Amino acid sequence: MNSRLLSLIRKEFIQIGRDPRALILILVIPIMQLFLLGYAATNDVRNVPMAVFDQDRGPEARELLDAYRSADYFNIVLEVNSEAELREALDYAKVRVGLIIPPDYSAKIEGDGSAQVAFVLDGSDPTVASTAFSAAQLVGQALSTRITVERLERRGQSGVLTPPVEVRTQVWYNPDLVSSYFMIPGVIGTILYALTSILTATSIVRERERGTIEQLIVTPIRPWELVVGKMLPYVILGLMNALEVLLLGHFWFGVPVRGSLIWIALLSMLFLLTSLGIGLMASTVANTQMEAMLVVWMTLLPGIFLSGFFFPLEAMPTVLRVISYFFPLRYFLTIIRSLLLKGVGVQALLPDIIALAVYGFGIMTIASLRFRKRLD
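Above: the chain sequence. Below: its structure as tokens.
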């Protein structure tokens, strides 16, 4: 590495250190994003507030309530005396679900009959409602099976209840279905994607705003040295941020690291080509730092939402799934999650790696040519 390039890299690091806003963006934002998404962005619905309208108050009704209490999904916070009170509790968002037990519930259960209870859900939040709906059915089925077994045992027919088909489920890679295991690898991708592209674009445009780009042009620095010298510091900072998130995610949130760290680093650098290319491309279009940030955000927002970071790609319409193939974050999220959670080899990720390489080298080549042309 020649002295001109080293001097330019040193200058860029000094300039970053003198900008407190850039330091906050680089050092603090990734940690905030990690903890916010690690704790807040979760689909693990627990302790849903529930109201109970128990018109029976018999032993079987208490057994039913105990079954719902023992499940982590529900928290009985209110007992009402009428359906009107239950409706009011749901209207005012005091509870999310309500259980109505009829007055003859215990009598029907004791008499070997069939009893029905009503389970009312607030569907304004589909995520909570769907989880509560499934949990309510599972609790009811488990209790129903237990009552049926007890009835057959009293009759001496316990062997009759043998299901012809038994499905035994196994969850691989994330047995406890912890949402942070899914979100935190995505944070690495979004940090590499967002920070490096924004900082690269604004750092180059800042030189143009202050008139120092002309001073650099008249020096013996070649165009490729200028590009590399401006980008390399942000490659180093981006990898440092990715390592920071990876260590915090592993030691604080317990996210497993089952794949090779070498491959994680190499493929992260490959992904950096795309974000650096986007930042360099934005710098050739914008004349101010604000314009550069807006240009970058025009690609970041659809890229993040169509990458599978927040929402599963399988749930999207076909048109959006096709469009998602044009955003590199989609491929990197598949790669980083597979390396961390599954520990797969490169062979399993080859299509995504090839797509990421084509995109990265393509956008970087086009952006570099446009940048050199603008310098001329």
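The domain at 48-160 is CATH 3.40.1710.10 (abc type-2 transporter like fold).
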